[in-house]
Amino acid sequence: MFDRRQILAGLAGATTLAAPTVLRAQTAWDMPVPYTDGTFHTQNVRWWVEEITKATGGSMKIQVHSNNSLIRLPEILRAVSTGQVAAGEILISQFGNEDPFFELDSIPFLAQGLDQGMLLYQASKQALEATCQRRGIRVLYCVAWPSQAFYSKTPINSAADMRGMKFRTVSPITSRMAELLGAVPTLVQASEVPQAFATNIVTGMITSGATGVQSRAWEFSSQFVNLRASMPKNAILVNERAWQRLPQAVKDAMLAASAQAEPRGWKLAGEVEAASIEELRKNGMTIVDPSPQLLSDVKAVGAKLTEEWIAKAGDTGKTVIENFRSRLRA
Ligand code: PCA
Q: 66 CB under 6 A from ligand 1?
């Protein structure tokens, strides 16, 4: 289906006497990514692909399929794991039910802002990579989203204001958070957010300024509570067997592009955070900092979720949290 296609460039020419001097192997991969072309993650992936194309003289081709068009986010992890596609991008916490290390970055108030998000990433990188390797997947790089905020049609000043609110969540752990806040969670893909609000399936949500702008949140909500709750990440994944089949020069080019795309993406996340909040404001949304009551309500839930997480993630989990906390103190 979407398997890697191996094409031998110049094969037709090889049958003539004027055989090409270099018979170069070409590799063409399909790569599903979950978000729109206007999303900085997708733009960064396209930049990464461009770098690889240039560095390999066009012998490595990766076709990006954006906005859940080839494979939907909930299926991308398995598609890369089985080799249905050689590469893909995921929101890591989408798969929180499969392994605690997939949901760590979405626990509210564990890490706030890009700097802490990076420390949590560094503390948990090895464990995340091992989790993926057990599924036959190699992680090439990870990039954070801007801080997570609450959106709604009505002001949210405390958990009491969320009681019974139909609330769009992004991952199992954000669903658990919504539940503990007294709301009624529904997992909705970013591409379907406007529709979910339009039909009153939800009246509030958690996401970043970036995704709020991409879904034109001002058309269906009025309040943006700048909670800065967590720093979820996307990961760029490749199937390990497909990776092993690549020529060393192509692997080197991909690793080099990844080493650039990662910091580039984190920098973009910071720029997009500021710009998108401005854009929401310009379009008439009310931008507020969380009230002390809401902050303490969500922090209490975050502390509980952290305890639950440590209980699930065992000794490795405990070590990762200790490692993160010592990085925070340093
Ligand atoms: N945007 C994605 C994931 C986190 C974010 O900021 C979403 O809402 O689906």
A: no
Domains and CATH numbers, the chain: 4-98+111-144+233-274 (3.40.190.170), 148-230+279-329 (3.40.190.170)
pLDDT in tens, 59-91: 999 999 999 999 999 999 999 999 999 999 999
Ligand 1 touching residue 94 (CB < 6 A): no
Q: What is the pTM of this model?
A: 0.92
Report which of 285, 312, 303 is spatially closest to residue 226, judged by C-alpha positions: 285
Taking only the tens place, the pLDDT of each residue in 218-246 is 999 999 999 999 999 999 999 999 999 99
Nearest CA to ligand 1 atom 8: 207
